[in-house]
Fold this sequence. Notes:
- The chain has 253 residues and is an alpha+beta fold.
- It folds into 2 domains: 32-115, Macroglobulin (MG2) domain (Immunoglobulin-like), CATH 2.60.40; 123-244.
- The chain is 49% helix and 25% strand.
- It has helices at residues 5-28, 123-148, 168-197, 201-244; strands at 32-37, 42-47, 54-60, 66-72, 74-76, 79-84, 91-101, 104-115, 155-156, 162-164.
- The strands form 3 sheets. The chain has a 5-stranded mixed sheet. Strands 2-6-5 form a 3-stranded antiparallel sheet, with no helix packed on it.
- A hairpin with a 2-residue loop joins β7 and β8.
- α2 runs antiparallel to α3 (168-197).
- It is rod-shaped and about 105 Å long.
Amino acid sequence: MKFNAKKLGVILLIMFFTTLFTASFVSSEQKSLGVFQQGECIQLKQTCADCTYINFTRVSYPDSNEALLSASAEKVGTTFNYTFCNTTKLGEYIVEGVGDVEGTATIFSYDFKITYLGKELSEAKAILYIGFLTILILVFIINFVGIGFLPSRNTKDEEGRILSISYLKYFRNVLGMAGYFLFIGIIYISSNLAFAFLEEGLIAKTLFMIFQISFTVAPIVIIVWIVWIFVSMFHDNEFQKMLNRGVFPQGNL
């Protein structure tokens, strides 16, 4: 059998370009589509400059159940797209499909993640969150310990008559308001950690609902608190005038 170097060169050249085209498809293949919010419609994508079609054949849910699509993707330039909306389950989804590369059917797969808030909490961010949470809890405890050392009412004698006005009691209220916002911060960070690491979403949703309610009513709480402070200061001012005249009234202040 006579060796033909020219034919061998042609064969090798064909193999090279075939490998190149296939590698081009594989290299452009999605590794991960990203992170999306629960219930959101997303675009399944695959890039292939040499394909005439792309079919998304299957999406595997986080609980291993499957949605059999067999759906043809729409081509826009060199990118094929398909809208997928069944994203009610939290966790990692696996997408599988097939496309023709130079007439050869080539399969591909990639994943995407569904979270409640559409964000993924990495290990570094989790450590940062836990650090902030620890600091907030410590400040929260110190804040309320400090409140215990402050007077809650004006100074009175044994008969209940007011002897002097204690203005430190207003700082007690300031610390109480600060504690309220520290509580909101603690609940918010806790809900984010729960969404990221707990498979069951009930606790996370409950914490986030508490945060939403607390944050929503915060303006009302601030307005009521400011009004109460001004009313209390007005009454204290009236009592102070009486004390300056030598009158020691009885009262609940």
